[in-house]
Amino acid sequence: MSTLPQRVFSGVQSSGNLHLGNYLGAITRFVELQKNFDCLYCVVDLHAITVPQDPLSLRANTRKAAATFIACGIDPKKNIVFNQSQVAEHAELAWILNCVARIGWLNRMTQFKEKAGKDRENASIGLYDYPVLMAADILIYRATHVPVGEDQKQHLELARDIAQKFNNDFAASIARNGFGESFFPVPEPLIAGPATRVMSLRDGAKKMSKSDISDYSRINLADDADQIAQKIKKAKTDPDALPSDEKGLEGRPEADNLVGIFAALAGRTKADVLGEYGGANFSAFKNALIDLSVAKLAPITSEMRRLTQDETYVDGVLRDGAERARVLARANMNAVKDIVGLLR
Ligand code: TYM
User: Are residues 27 and 113 in the same domain?
Assistant: First the structure.
């Protein structure tokens, strides 16, 4: 089997403000993983344009997302932090993988169905093809581990299927070119912790999302302490006190969500949080959650603001990251061309 180094890749879209779901489901994991892995963290601006974007806001949002990574504790010297469109090999490999992926596989993608809605005929081809570009993002670096929130699980399974099909379809050529039995590692999703799926604060059955029309449904990383307090105070709950064990959260999605958020922010388990707050009413628990959220998020928000104003610095980080990413991507793209039989 492969003796490739373990390598982490993950991406975050550059559209709109990042929220607590992105932070707890993905970015906090990125920060942990940098201790033990070589990591690439990417602002996926090519994914963002699968739905219409205003060019000026897109550029600003790409910088904002990169500033957020850094403000959350990702070290851009130790890791490669960059935006997708600066490394052309992502799109180049996506084309090759388009010829490997099957229409039937893409037709099963639930996120496309949700995003395209009823007006499917009018959705962009990019929106449909989005998961193949995502597979290319990962595979162009032959990444082995991909930290994501629960909502990206199906896309990750597709990336695994594409990697395996490429390895099978081109097995003879892969061996002939000296890569042994397989070229792409089958990437492992890393989906773990108490907040892999942070739900809307207004409706425990809906995912916290930047596209929800109600700003009260989410905590944005750009929110100030007052906004955070207001949103948590207004968060939907049920009339009962908090249970003292996790089983008691069953059938109580809003309570489960708030306890999960608390646990993830505090770096504790839900069971541990319930051990402390079991029997408490929501107003007491919400006050504790407000204090904890503000303590954790306020330093990030102020660092984000500072970095967002320093365009030269952020652009420099992205340019440097793209240069380093390109070296890895180019070598792998050349190998893919040799394997597939494209002259170079
Ligand atoms: P995006 O930009 O929608 O979300 C970025 C990351 O945040 C996670 N996330 C959540 N986690 C928990 N609860 C939530 N409510 C929540 N909302 C979002 C997402 O799971 C994700 O990890 N397609 C991806 C970006 C991407 C990518 C990649 C990821 C492009 N290429 C390659 C991994 C590897 C996306 O749109 O994520």
Answer: yes
CATH number, domain with residue 237: 1.10.240.10
286 has catalytic annotation? no
- As for how many domains the chain has, the answer is 2
pTM, rounded to two decimals: 0.97
User: Are both 46 and 163 inside the same structural domain?
Assistant: yes
**In terms of domains, do 175 and 156 share one?**
yes
Measured by CA distance, the residue closest to atom 5 of ligand 1 is: 12
Same domain as 84, residue 21: yes
Residue 177, helix vs strand vs coil: coil
Catalytic-residue membership of 296: no
Residue 14 has what pLDDT? 86
Q: How far is the CA of 342 from the centre of ligand 1 (A)?
A: 33
Average pLDDT of the segment spanning 225-239: 97
Task: Identify which of 7, 8, 9, 12 to mutate to test ligand 1's pocket (most ligand atoms within 8 A of the CB).
Answer: 12
What does the DSSP assignment read for 255-314? HHHHHHHHHHHHT--HHHHHHHHTT--HHHHHHHHHHHHHHHHHHHHHHHHHHHH-HHHH
Residue 204 included in any domain: no
Catalytic, 207? Answer yes
Q: Is the pLDDT of residue 2 over 60?
A: no
Residues 189 and 241 occupy one common structural domain: no
Which element (helix H / strand E) includes 132? helix 125-139
Mutate to test the pocket of ligand 1, among 43, 80, 152, 162 (most ligand atoms within 8 A of CB): 152
Domain that holds residue 128: 7-196+311-340
- For 301-330, what is each residue's pLDDT tens digit? 999 999 999 999 999 999 999 999 999 999
What confidence tier does 1 reach under pLDDT thresholds 50, 70, 90?
Answer: very low
